[in-house]
Amino acid sequence: MNDAGLRELEREVVSCRRCPRLVAWREEVAQVRRAAYASEEYWGRPLPGFGDPDAAVLVIGLAPAAHGGNRTGRIFTGDRSGDWLFGSLWRTGFANQPTSVARDDGLELTGAYVAAAVRCAPPANRPTPAERDNCLPYLVRELGLLASVRVIVTLGSFAWDATLRVLGDRGIAVPRPRPRFGHGAEVGIDRFTLLGCFHPSQQNTFTGKLTEPMIDGVFERAKALAG
Predict the structure, then answer these.
(1) Domain that holds residue 19
(2) How far apart are CA 102 and CA 57, in angstroms?
(3) Who contacts 35 (Cβ-Cβ below 8 Å, separation ≥6)?
(4) What whole-number distance in Å separates Cα of residue 46 and Cα of residue 33?
(5) pTM (2 decimals)?
(6) How many domains does the chain contain in total?
(7) Alpha-carbon torsion (89, 91, 93, 97), positive or negative
(8) Which CATH number is 77's domain given?
(9) Which of helix, strand or coil describes residue 107?
(10) Most distant CA atoms of the chain, gap in Å
């Protein structure tokens, strides 16, 4: 466990202004606001990871939602993707409650830590490759500080690809050809097992591409691998 290192990384992430397009977008969203949240003060900054610093399972998403994490200040908190994620983490024993609506709502994770490949809300949920590359050093450091992580669950192909890049940046030999993303995909790389899961976006959950038993199955597998 490296609490001091994680706190220092959190301070650096929150103050980051590396990507002009993302800075402009996240701050515009925070000022204009959605009507349903007009009375709320938006976070409007990059989001650090959060969870159990002794976690054996690291969950990596794409980026904060404009009116989810960009509003609440915690990744996956306050949006429908988060409802699916935290519901599954609760059912599989990683979370103490099934929902997360605010940073101070009492949510606690045990054995799991949640982060994102890109820390700012991107327009249309699509960060550019350059924005991803600007942000990945934070995840490289985060993975180094989370010394107990053995299993990495990637939510979607963007997070899968970003994780392979992070492992390579940490000097870990990534298999060639590069492992391909798929729901339930599993590959061992050095001391880590990489698990693929469809992203719990409305596009996937509303269409039935991702169901609760499917996402629960990934986290049950992660739990078994983590020991």
Answers:
(1) 3-226
(2) 22
(3) none
(4) 17
(5) 0.96
(6) 1
(7) positive
(8) 3.40.470.10
(9) coil
(10) 51
What is the bridge-based pairing of β-strands 112-116 and 50-51? Answer: antiparallel
Contacts 24+ apart (CB under 8 A), 186-193: 186/221, 189/164, 191/150, 192/149, 192/150, 192/151, 192/152, 192/167, 193/150, 193/151, 193/152, 193/225
How far is Cα of residue 225 from the mean position of the Cα atoms in its chain? 19
CA distances from 88 to 14, 158, 171, 212 (A): 27, 21, 32, 7
Question: What distance in Å separates the CA atoms of residue 135 and residue 132, rounded to the nearest whole number?
Answer: 5
86-143: pLDDT as tens digits = 999 999 999 999 999 999 999 999 999 999 999 999 999 999 999 999 999 999 999 9
* H-only helix segments in the chain: 3-14, 20-32, 69-72, 80-91, 129-145, 157-169, 202-205, 212-226
Q: Which amino acid is at 47?
A: L
